[in-house]
Amino acid sequence: MSGPSWEDETRRTVLEGRAILERTAESLARSQHTAAETERVGEEVVSELGAQRETLLRSRQRLADTDNELSQTHVLLRKMKLHVFTNKIILIVIILLEICILAAVCYIKFFS
Question: Is the pLDDT of residue 12 over 80?
Fold first, then answer.
């Protein structure tokens, strides 16, 4: 009687060990699948981040170019303001000279 019971116990232990090994193998397969999926997602994220980096670098360059052009425009506007101011002063001087000439002509015509 002890023979079959020992064999049954051994067989049960072996079957339990085999079941544990199969579950472990399945768990490892799931872990490998998850790792492969995680790696694929990681590669996609890295690729997308690289594209976003390139976009940001181009935007940064465009911003620097715009800032440079804005500085040049500011200088040009300052020059234009100076020219407008100079033209106004010249125009005022010309008007004053015309008024003086007109006054002199009127004085000469009516008081001479």
Answer: yes
